[in-house]
Queue: 2 jobs
Job 1
Amino acid sequence: MNATSKKKVSLPPILDRRPLSPSGRGSVVKHDDPDQLLCVFASNVRIVRHSLGLSQEALADVSDLDRTYISGIERALRNVSIRNVQRIAVALDVDPRDLLNPLLSSVPKYKPFAEAPPAPRKSQS
């Protein structure tokens, strides 16, 4: 075979085509099996944040992340990097392992906030 002739190579068909995520960032959406760890992390961030009386904006400021990113995390739409898990844990003053603990809502310190977030505070004018 000389250098100018090229042989066509047929590629096998992709057997497992899954849609991209709604954000279009290339992650795969699993409609039948949600990512449990991501959901646990999202729920725990919200529980701890509420227990400390922090808004998403305040948490974002302390952790040096964007408020919309925090919102996406709490709705389990963002796949968080380990660095950002650490930033959020430091900002919330918890061990990063606690944010990944599926039983966090059973810890007495956080239990009252696991069912429903506290009512928003009224500004005193």
Job 2
Amino acid sequence: MTRQTAADALPRLPSARATWLSTATTVLSSRPFVTAVWLEGSLGGGVADAFSDIDLVVAVDESAPPEVFADPVSGLGLPGRLLYVRDKPMCVDRTKAFAPTCS
């Protein structure tokens, strides 16, 4: 078995990203508490390159289970694992739930 280098993996990243987005879209569309989903960042702006990450925003209503906020990736049933959650930005309504994550 040979060790894979970053140069070997780079050509596969856009395809892997597209597969993840397709799976995430299918999963999220099956969740009745998900009210909207959209892409931000370079993918959302149509200027992504092979190194671009996925900035996916998921809006949920008040019926979302607590698991969604404890670990959004697992709670929503998305592929991958939770890397981080950041605090709600000051410009976001403090009375609403907010949990940006990276997976």
